[in-house]
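FORM 7B - TANDEM STRUCTURE REPORT

SECTION 1: FIRST PROTEIN
SEQUENCE AND TOKENS:
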Amino acid sequence: MSEQMKEEQQAQEDMDTSYDIVFSGHHGERVLEDLYRFCGKDSKCVMRDPYDTYLALGMRTPSLYIEERLNGERSTVKQGNKPSNYKQPEGDKDVNKVHN
């Protein structure tokens, strides 16, 4: 395993620990339940109107991502994530980078 992969794995494990700390305890569990309710985690997502379906799926995504992080899973909910071997094409801006 390369040094970069080890660092990425450690960063992911550190992030999992951070999620566990933030959402543990009485207050963390209450906030998590509220987020799940607000995001419609346990609601049906297929609606008559396809735009409502897309909206419901989009609202549900953060709750699924949080749940996966708390379970220590590598996210199957991909939002702007790129493989570690991804190379940005020359001249393209990386819209996922945060510029300070």
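SECTION 2: SECOND PROTEIN
SEQUENCE AND TOKENS:
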Amino acid sequence: MHLQFDTLRYAESLKWAGIPWAQAKAKTEALTMVLEEAVASTLATNDDIRSCRAEMTQAKLEMRSMKWLMLISAAGLTLLIAMHLR
């Protein structure tokens, strides 16, 4: 992911504040690297979102299967109890 950051404007503002140009440029480059790393490590990519959606779809299918299994088990248990009470 690309970070929109006006590096020239930032470096010039440092220079106008009295920081030598070489130091302002170095600080700008360092800040740009840190911001890009922070953005890359915290934002989800389209692939991340697709993967999460696939996992959620799979989980829904598994829960649906478990629901039917529990319903069938409850019906079987009810039938066994009814047969035992006769």
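SECTION 3: OBSERVATIONS ON SECOND PROTEIN
The chain has a mean pLDDT of 90.
The longest helix spans residues 46-85.

SECTION 4: SIGNATURE
Preparer initials: ____
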